[in-house]
Amino acid sequence: MGYGLPSPPDAVYQIDETVEVYIAAPGGSWEVAGGYSLTLDLGFEMEPDGMRARGIVESFEGSLSDPIGDLGYLVGTIEFVANPGGVVEVESFPRLSGLSARELSLAGLPYDLFPRLPGDTASAGATWADTVSWHTDPEKAEQSYIANYTYMLVGDTVVDGRNLLHIAVAGELDFFTAWDEPGNLLVRRVKGPLTGFILWDPERGLVTHHEYEKDLVKTVTREDSSFKASLSGRRRMHLGR
To answer: Fewer Cβ within 10 Å of end Cβ, the chain: N or C?
Structure first.
């Protein structure tokens, strides 16, 4: 169970994410909800350190309710290196513009496309673990993410005539964001569980479907106040070809 150069050496993924935030602040409560949908075109090639993946976003659309509204646009390409076990180095990823970058980030996208595999033979019931962490410094903000995952091989399954491996996923994540507003430093910390599953195609050596849900508690701290919020959401990734 490990990644190698797919045949053919390219893939197109459809990725959809939804998010819903309920905020209970001193000045009142409100909700922010919405999501996005994008199509990602990837190409692969082998090099001494592993397999290099390069990709572009072919289409993107999405929105969040007020006060953010339209999600704007994506800037940049995705490029990373993976070995048989998973991602080893992320060099670039698409970035959202404007206020939406505070609510949604694509920095973890390579790890979702190539989640950790044992890199060896495994049978039903086998488990393994991984820790995913990344840090970014977008303009006027800072983001830090760490998640501890546990994977379990459930067994074989057949989807659209293809023999796939079903892998259950459970995790605990901790996501920190800080940015400056005029005269006020705002710090947000989101923590909680994540559960989902992966369908992996051993013939192509690619994830064909990765889906997870998260149910998180968010603490927002300003220099003059602090309040709680809840955040729930779902991300689906499906291999189109």
So the answer is: C
